């Protein structure tokens, strides 16, 4: 996908109708390498996105289908396109953050989760993902207060306590780590 980004001329993946077609057309070789069920699932949504590269519904279905088939970099590129087309929609930022985590681009993922939370500040999965992305990007101290707040929510308490234990252990506070992990 690095060649695709270079061909588009912009590292952020935001493209117009003409270059957007390059994004989708460039996936043809990747589609050919997939098993037949994946090709069957992706071909019609790719055609629809190619035919209507400025249509949020068509590009959104394509992005989510790429995501479902774990085609991480193409899914990220499609979500970047959607964020340009439809900047006020929470889903594109949140799902791009999830994909960026899979690509081990945790700092970028944290930024997407921050952007998503600016749209829907109480969405619990995004709050958890932001704290995790910060932790995984080496910002344990920044993630700690987020996990502490999450620990007060019964739905998030187990994952929050686990990560508070990890943070305590990493800082050498083994007694605190044990308390969080009990």
Descriptive account of the structure:
- This protein has 182 residues and is an all-alpha fold.
- It contains 12 helices and no strands.
- Helix 2 runs antiparallel to helix 4 and helix 5 packs antiparallel against helix 6.
- The radius of gyration is 19 Å and the shape is elongated.
The parts where pLDDT drops under 50 for at least 5 residues are: 1-16
What is the radius of gyration?
19 Å
Largest sheet: none
How big a fraction of the residues is strand?
A: under 5%
Q: What's the number of extended β-strand segments?
A: 0
Number of helices: 12
Mean pLDDT value: 86
SSE order, one letter for each helix or strand = HHHHHHHHHHHH
Distance between the termini: 44 Å
Helix content range: over 70%
Shape: elongated
Look at the helices and sheets and give the structural class. Answer: mainly alpha
What would you say about this model in short?
With 182 residues, the protein is mainly α. Helix content is 76%, strand content 0%.
Summarize the topology.
Layout lengths: L1 H7 L8 H9 L2 H5 L3 H16 L4 H13 L3 H14 L4 H13 L3 H14 L4 H13 L3 H12 L5 H14 L3 H8 L1
Helix pairs in contact: 2-4, 4-5, 5-6, 6-7, 7-8, 8-9, 9-10, 10-11, 11-12
């Amino acid at each position: 996908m690095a060649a695709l980004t270079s061909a588009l001329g912009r590292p952020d993946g935001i493209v117009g109708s003409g270059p957007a077609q390059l994004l989708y057309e460039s996936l043809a070789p990747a589609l050919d390498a997939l098993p037949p069920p994946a090709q069957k699932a992706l071909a019609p949504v790719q055609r629809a996105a190619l035919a209507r590269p400025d249509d949020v519904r068509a590009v959104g279905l394509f992005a989510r289908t790429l995501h479902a088939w774990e085609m991480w970099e193409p899914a990220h590129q499609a979500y970047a396109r959607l964020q340009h087309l439809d900047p006020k929609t929470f889903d594109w930022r949140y799902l791009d953050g999830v994909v960026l985590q899979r690509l081990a681009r945790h700092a970028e993922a944290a930024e997407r989760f921050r952007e998503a939370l600016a749209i829907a500040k109480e969405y619990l999965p995004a709050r958890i993902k932001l704290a995790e992305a910060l932790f995984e990007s080496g910002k344990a101290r920044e993630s700690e207060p987020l996990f502490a707040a999450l620990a007060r929510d019964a739905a998030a308490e187990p994952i929050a306590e686990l990560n508070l234990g990890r943070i305590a252990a990493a800082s050498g506070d083994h007694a605190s780590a044990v308390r969080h992990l009990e």
